[in-house]
Each structure stands twice: as structure tokens, then as C-alpha cells.
Amino acid sequence: MQSPTPISWVILAGGQATRMGGKDKGLVELNGTPLIELVQNKLAAQTQSIVINANRNSEYYQKYAPVICDQFTGYPGPLGGIHAGLLHASTDWVGFVPCDSPLISDDLVARFERAIKPELDILVAHDGDHLQPVFTLFHKRVLDKLEAFLQRGDRKIILLYDECHTQYVDFSHDKSCFINLNTPQELEQFGTLL
User: What pTM value is reported for the model?
Assistant: First the structure.
């Protein structure tokens, strides 16, 4: 089924993963499977347009999808990957998910698609209690504002959302889809629950 609005999707795997001991988080395994594979499988069931933002181990990531790197140096966090995604996308709308959330909702893409309105710049997932800032959909027109934001040294994604026409997308029906695994301890605990 063709989506009403074409969207490119980017899996963000370009961070330093300091809380994971510096290991490349997308390559960390959960019960024998790399996190990137779990996330890519979930997303691939919903869309064919996927790229991965990674700043190391690109050859490995290319087994799963085309790879793009940050254009800004010094690991500017998720916004570096978002910037790269907007820069490389051929669609007006670009969606982003982190590489460390293996339970991505089965209706994530559809729910974001339904929330698109022409006047919006950014859509961000909300779990009913908290904003989930790296589960997000950007219109390409935000690129110039994002570049200026990064050039002046800003890194807090929520500050950018305040500068744009941003709307929340309700995911309170599926809060577990935002579980992210940041530390070896979280990974181990989560693995025993599956």
C-alpha cells in the first residue's frame, strides 16, 4: 500500500554510546542479535525507505541499509544524525528512530503518517507521560534552522522543537516501544525479560 505522504526513515546509530562503555550501540547484541537488526526488522515491516546514520563501522551497517554519516564533527548527538538525514533525503518528510529501542511499535510509521499536516515542521512521539524526542518526523524545511542551531553550538533537541511548529503524536497505547537500552545492565535485565 502506497503511503499518502512519502517518508524516508533513518535509524540513528551515530552516537558515542558513552553509557554503553563506548561500544557501538547498534552492534551490541540482545540475546545474540545486534540491536540494529532488531530495529531494522521492525521498521522494514512498515516501510521500504530506510537508511542508517552511523559514524563508525559503516561496512557492518551497510549489511542492513545504506549508511550516511554526520556532516557536523564532534558527535553533536541525535541532531547530527537528524541533520544528515534531512540533507540526504529525497522526500519532504524524514522520520527518525534510535538504534537502541528494539520494541518499536508496529504502527509507528502509520501513526506518524496520519499526524502529518502541511503547516507542521516536526512531529514528536509522546508516550502519555513524556516526550520521546528521538522518535520524530521532520519536514525538510527545518534543515536551515537546524544547521544554524548546530552551528551556534546548541545540542538540546527539545530547544529546537520549541523553535519550530511542533506537534506531539500520541503513543500512550504502546509505551513499551520506547524502552531504550543505554547501559550493559539495562541490556542484561531486558534480555532476561524476553
Answer: 0.91
